Amino acid sequence: DSLVCRDIMLSIIVPVYNTEKYLAKCLDSIIQALEKVEIKTEVLVINDGSTDNSKIVIEKYKNEHPQLIAAYDKPNGGLSDVKNFGLDHAKGEFISFIDSDDFVDPEMFYDMMNGIMNSSADAAVCDIKLVYDDKTERVWPCTNSAKTDAFEAVIDMPMMASSCNKIIRKSLFDGIYFPKGINNEDIAVTPIVLGRTSKIVIINKSYYNYYQRSGSIQNGEFNERRFAILQTARLCIDNAAVLGKEKQNIIKNSLYAHQILALALYPVREQKFGKRLKLLKEYMRRIHNTFPDFWRNMAVLSYGMYDGRNEKIFKQLSIKLLSHKCYFGVSCFWSIVNMILKV
Questions:
Q1: Phi, psi of 142 (to 5 degrees)
Q2: What CA–CA distance (Å, rounded) separates 127 from 245?
Q3: Residues 201, 119: contact at Cβ < 8 Å?
Q4: What pLDDT, in 10s, does the model give residues 203-243?
């Protein structure tokens, strides 16, 4: 049995919770993409106590592809719990996480594993395509093209924490677990695991299709639960202490600018005025308590400096007002920005 275990090169972990409408498309895309791959693979489909017919869909695919798909059924524990479960049960040398309401392009695993094998890398990342119900699409690059170092280029991006557009050597997850019961769980783990790599392969093709469904956690009603990003960012920064000063700073700068500050400038800004002001005051209070050095961080203070003129003015003026605790003023400013954007 140990020989068989060593034989598996890639384990694809698919957490499932009430996604029966999307699951077949997801699994079909994975199976199709694996047809091009010659290495031995396994797909772990983990049902996290779904209350819809997801389990029936999983059983159907397990029966049709018994050599490829391993089906698991566990009590509901949330996304972190499923990912930890998947890591504990995966036999492959490399790990890929795919959300069960998303889908992948046919070349994804072939190109990314080829890149890893050809350059003896520990990880590969690809671009992400946001797919909307109205059939519009938007590509999020996986790297900051202004950075020459691969690690910094990957980390200095808004979607850097996503575990879904990456294939990573499993041993790099040793001793690290996704924090249970908190949203934005990837933020606590992915930067640390990438920080442990000696080489990252970058594939600038949008192979991962991130479906923007209206009922999902990220696109649902905004509330204080989303402030969990501060907890996961704190965990990440604490865990990064083992990586060395340079990588610690790269991670911290990205978390402060692309995750913590960006949450105020985009999702918080989009709320109605009264709710926005209340959320903003509470969010900034928590930032001050959790990250006392936040307004001394250069990545925060220079956020938007290299954007186009309008974006630069919006970000820099927002930062100036926020850093001086002018929450009513910034909220009024955002109302004007929101009006202009709607025109």
A1: -90, -10
A2: 28
A3: yes
A4: 999 999 999 876 554 445 678 888 999 999 999 999 999 99
- Does residue 123 contact residue 112 with C-beta atoms inside 8 Å? no
What is the spatial distance between Cα 329 and Cα 327, in angstroms, rounded to a whole number? 5
Is pLDDT above 70 for 3?
Answer: no
Query: pTM (2 decimals)?
Result: 0.92
d(CA 225, CA 315): 24
SS (H, E, C) 49-107: CCCCCHHHHHHHHHHHCCCCEEEEEECCCCHHHHHHHHHHHCCCCEEEECCCCCEECCC
pLDDT digits (tens, 9 = 90+) for 88-98: 999 999 999 99
Which two tokens mark 318?
């927002």
Tokens matching residue 41: 């693979």
| pLDDT one-digit tens code per residue, 89-122 | 999 999 999 999 999 999 999 999 999 999 999 9
> Angle, to 10 degrees, between the axis of helix 186-195 and the axis of helix 245-254?
150
Distance CA 239, CA 305 (A): 29
Helix or strand run (H / E) with residue 273:
helix 273-290
Distance CA 258, CA 240 (A): 17
Q: Report the relative pairing of strands 200-211 and 103-104 from DSSP bridges.
A: antiparallel
User: DSSP string of 281-296?
Assistant: HHHHHHHHHH-TTGGG
Q: Which two tokens stand for residue 122?
A: 């520990």
